[in-house]
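Retro notes (design track)

What went well: tokenization of the new backbones is finally stable.
What didn't: we kept losing track of which sequence belonged to which structure.
Fix going forward: every design gets posted as structure first, then sequence, in one message. First example under the new rule, 337 residues:
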């Protein structure tokens, strides 16, 4: 029997890599896509299948995590074996501008989805995209048993979703797990997250298209891994014998300034000449240092990250230089989904 997976947030960085992985593994992959006035499925171009193709395995459905009836209907109709809840307002700085909206889509929507699964009465495993942001002000290293101390409306919302997932596991015996993932990046990372903002700017500065890069706090320390490896970890969590929560991280620690320096150096540019401070990118409360301990995932899931900085930085800078080149030479062609 072909396994069926449902992914919320399929159009995002992780959703697109996870969809690719599950298709490779022989799954039928269903994804929820928000209606948008412009195309929002670009990250799915590599796996796009024409809806008229009778042998397709990728199915996109209009929906929204804020629409509970839509979620129940989709779950009844699809009857998935696995659900991955990756949809969220995932930007920490933006969560200070839209705290209530973020609470709804990033926090309460997880409960909405769990309740939709319960009331639809389907047998499915569920993965909740929990975050290292939940640890917030608690000093590193952070592991599964580290206390939470969120420092943003986003972090607060993720803590709610974490406990909702754990509660449904305990209350109803659902196979519901939290993957507590530290920052993971790739050429598909949204352009306003710090790594991609930097690597994209490096490509544009190198090409003479951008004079400067305006940044917030350069002292924050993060544990940056490579997104395709993290989606493999998500899948492994749902294949484990028992539902448990896992941290995924590399255990490495670099500051934002380190990342900036590595990215500019890779393109033979001096970062001090271009980087300027702009307080609008600072947060009212910052998370100073996140460095994860993923030894449980290594022990129980055999999950070991291989791509670490500075290689990760090089992959992203090279991809942005290539993408800019393709755009300027007209080689990049958009697929109409
Ligand atoms: P992205 O921001 O790239 O993707 C978010 C996805 O959620 C997009 O597909 C977006 O759709 C969708 N979405 C937003 N609002 C809604 C809504 N109301 N209904 C349905 N879908 C919605 O995030 P990532 O891929 O980087 O992260 C995936 C998940 O993992 C998120 O929950 C994030 O919070 C969490 N996470 C991420 C980490 C990271 O380092 N990347 C680390 C830890 C956790 P659209 O394309 O239309 O905007
Ligand atoms: P983060 O990622 O908040 O860790 O959340 P982000 O890349 O936005 O910020 C990382 C650090 O860089 C500092 N910073 C800047 N950040 C942005 N975006 N833009 C800037 O100009 C800038 N200058 C400095 C930030 O202050 C911060 O310290 C990400 C998201 O993917 C979440 O969804 C996920 O849960 C966590 O990672 C783990």
């Amino acid at each position: 029997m072909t396994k069926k997976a449902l992914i919320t947030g399929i159009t995002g960085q992780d959703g697109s890599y996870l969809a690719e992985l599950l298709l490779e593994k022989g799954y039928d992959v269903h994804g929820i896509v928000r209606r948008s006035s412009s195309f929002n499925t670009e990250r799915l171009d590599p796996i796009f299948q024409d809806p008229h193709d009778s042998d397709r395995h990728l199915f996109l459905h209009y929906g929204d995590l804020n629409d509970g009836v839509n979620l129940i209907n989709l779950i009844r109709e699809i009857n998935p074996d696995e659900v991955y809840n990756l949809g969220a307002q995932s930007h920490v700085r933006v969560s200070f501008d839209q705290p209530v909206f973020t609470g709804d889509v990033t926090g309460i929507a997880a409960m909405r989805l769990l309740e939709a699964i319960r009331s639809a009465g389907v047998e499915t495993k569920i993965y909740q995209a929990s975050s290292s942001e939940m640890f917030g002000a608690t000093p590193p290293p952070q592991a599964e048993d580290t206390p939470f101390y969120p420092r943003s409306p986003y972090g607060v919302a993720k803590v709610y979703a974490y406990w909702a997932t754990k509660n449904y596991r305990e209350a109803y015996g659902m196979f519901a797990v939290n993957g507590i993932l530290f920052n993971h990046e790739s050429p598909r990372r949204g352009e306003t997250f710090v790594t991609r903002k930097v690597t994209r700017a490096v490509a544009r500065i190198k090409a003479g298209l951008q004079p400067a890069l305006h940044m917030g706090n350069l002292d924050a320390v993060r544990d940056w891994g490579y997104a395709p490896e993290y989606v493999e970890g998500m899948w492994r969590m749902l294949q484990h014998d028992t539902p448990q929560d896992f941290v995924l991280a590399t255990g490495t620690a670099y500051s934002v300034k380190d990342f900036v320096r590595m990215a500019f150096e890779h393109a033979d540019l001096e970062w001090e000449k271009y980087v300027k401070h702009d307080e609008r990118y600072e947060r009212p409360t910052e998370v100073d240092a996140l460095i994860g301990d993923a030894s449980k995932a290594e022990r129980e899931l055999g999950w070991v990250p291989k791509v670490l900085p500075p290689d990760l930085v090089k992959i992203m800078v090279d991809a942005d230089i290539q993408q800019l080149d393709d755009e300027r030479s007209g080689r990049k062609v958009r697929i109409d989904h």
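Added context from the reviewer: Residues 8-9, 11-15, 32, 34, 36, 40, 64-66, 86-90, 105, 129, 131, 181, 183-184, 190 surround NDP (ligand 1) (CB under 6 Å).
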